Amino acid sequence: MSFPPGQTPDVQPSRLSQEFDFAALSPPPEAVDLLLLDTAAAWWEQGHPRDGVLILDDRSGALTLPILDSLISSAGRPGAACAAVEDAVSAVRVLQDELGAELGLQRNARRYELPAPVPQELPSLTEVEPAAFSGVHTVLMHLPRSLETLADWAWLIREHAASDVVVLAAGRDKHMNHSMNQVLEKHFTDVSAGRGRSKSRILTARTPRTEVPAVEPRTQTHQISVPGAAPTELTLCSMGATYGGTKLDPGTRLMLQTAEAQAGFPGAAEAVDFGSGNGTVSAFLALRHPELRVIATDHSASAVQSTRLTAAANGVADRVTTLRDDALSRFADSSAQLILLNPPFHQGNAVDPAAANRLIRAAARVLAPGGRLYCVFNSHLKHRAVLTREVGPTEQLARDSRFTVTVSTAS
């Protein structure tokens, strides 16, 4: 059954949200997850294709696992033939920006004894046939806070999905705004808002537009001035969900200026840009210290891609190695002499030092004795005590009304 423009199926509680046992899921599903499941079920019950499902940024498996469980059950679980299970898994694609979410989905899949889909790679916007998006019929996603991220997703779907694709984008009412509709309307001719439930709502986008201009990497040029030296000009690039986009983070600027004023990084042959974001630190180090090998690591696939673009834009791609990793898990103990870190100060909308403390502990493990950790953080936070306890003697190098820069030496 097809629906006229502006009309969508009636959404009621479905098997996906009512019959799947979420008790073992960690973290538990949110209201937007249940609404997404019920909305997808309503479309499928009306005859929309059930295969070719793409789930973007499923934070725990709350979307993926009920759909997989339903597909496998319909094939005869328990005791479903291997081919039927493989067909169910291949019908669902999952792409997650944060590595932690990807690993969380795999952990929850093991709890439920379900086969997790193979994680899809974030494509570049110039990729001809990105596997994650090609030919999909249904997309389930949480609306990202960043309109730039939403624009990137919308373009990739519009460009590569099937012509009958239905995009179901969910958000909390308090976080939604009309600009999100406008972004989707640039790529789809039919965008409508569904009825609210549990303070959540679905935007449905259909009918991809033709001749939408290709999305280009966002770029912005900045200068970092260092006392006694010519300013270093950086071209910063950003794609997708990279935190901060193409902005030059003022805390990162202060950290780099301060470290340079301390005579740079003598004795280090390699530097780890821990949480590389848009690649500011990596590109700066490679430009000003060609003797350094730079390893840029971030848990965000978008950030890793943005760091690569920034390194290429500044002509230092051959000296910056990028690595998607969670809290330096792929680095050996006592293997680094130099780490630079601008840790996050919040989880979601709340100020929360737990994420920063976790990264500081990771840096402490990886630093070799005598190795240095340069860190910048909001001045009102109490990170210096944590740095001293976890890493070693910590010296304050700079402080202003907003940021504090320290260097810690591993004991």
TrEMBL record:
<dbReference type="InterPro" id="IPR007848">
    <property type="entry name" value="Small_mtfrase_dom"/>
</dbReference>
<dbReference type="Pfam" id="PF26049">
    <property type="entry name" value="RLMG_N"/>
</dbReference>
<dbReference type="GO" id="GO:0052914">
    <property type="term" value="F:16S rRNA (guanine(1207)-N(2))-methyltransferase activity"/>
</dbReference>
<dbReference type="InterPro" id="IPR058679">
    <property type="entry name" value="RlmG_N"/>
</dbReference>
<dbReference type="InterPro" id="IPR029063">
    <property type="entry name" value="SAM-dependent_MTases_sf"/>
</dbReference>
<feature type="domain" description="RlmG N-terminal">
    <location>
        <begin position="31"/>
        <end position="207"/>
    </location>
</feature>
<dbReference type="InterPro" id="IPR046977">
    <property type="entry name" value="RsmC/RlmG"/>
</dbReference>
<keyword id="KW-0808">Transferase</keyword>
<keyword id="KW-0489">Methyltransferase</keyword>
<protein>
    <submittedName>
        <fullName>16S rRNA (Guanine1207-N2)-methyltransferase</fullName>
        <ecNumber>2.1.1.172</ecNumber>
    </submittedName>
</protein>
<feature type="domain" description="Methyltransferase small">
    <location>
        <begin position="234"/>
        <end position="406"/>
    </location>
</feature>
<dbReference type="Pfam" id="PF05175">
    <property type="entry name" value="MTS"/>
</dbReference>
